[in-house]
Design brief:
By secondary structure, the protein is of the alpha/beta class. It has a single domain, classed as Rossmann fold (3-Layer(aba) Sandwich). The chain is built from 2 helices and 4 strands; from the N terminus they run βαβββα. A 4-stranded mixed β-sheet has the order 1-2-4-3, with helices on both faces. β3 and β4 form a beta hairpin. It starts with a strand and ends with a helix.
Length: 101
């Protein structure tokens, strides 16, 4: 099963309760064989736009923090771009799997 979590926190560094819950849920689902991804905003300490953490793909988008309007606009546009990419990759991998069977 393909699972996407959309969150405002990252599992790259578990520092609080929200990160802990997301980390536990996502990694345990991945351990059970599910295709798990997290889409979140890129934080200042993130060095890359994506990372695989214990089998979970974390996709990070840039945000513009100059004012609330730009923050919302950049969140919408950049998360939409990542979502489309994930859908495209999921469709391609599903087609490849169906050809193998």
């Amino acid at each position: 099963m393909n699972i996407l979590f959309v969150s405002d926190v990252s599992i790259s560094e578990v520092i609080g309760g929200a990160e802990r819950v997301l980390f536990e849920q996502s990694t345990r689902l991945a351990q059970r064989g599910h295709n798990v991804h997290i889409m979140t905003r890129k934080l200042p300490d993130h060095r890359s736009n994506q990372e695989v953490i214990q089998g979970v793909g974390e996709w990070r988008y840039d945000v513009d923090q100059r004012n609330p309007f730009l923050f919302i606009r950049s969140t919408w546009l950049n998360s939409k771009r990542i979502f489309k990419s994930l859908i495209k990759n999921s469709s391609n991998s599903s087609a490849t799997k169906s050809r193998r069977h």
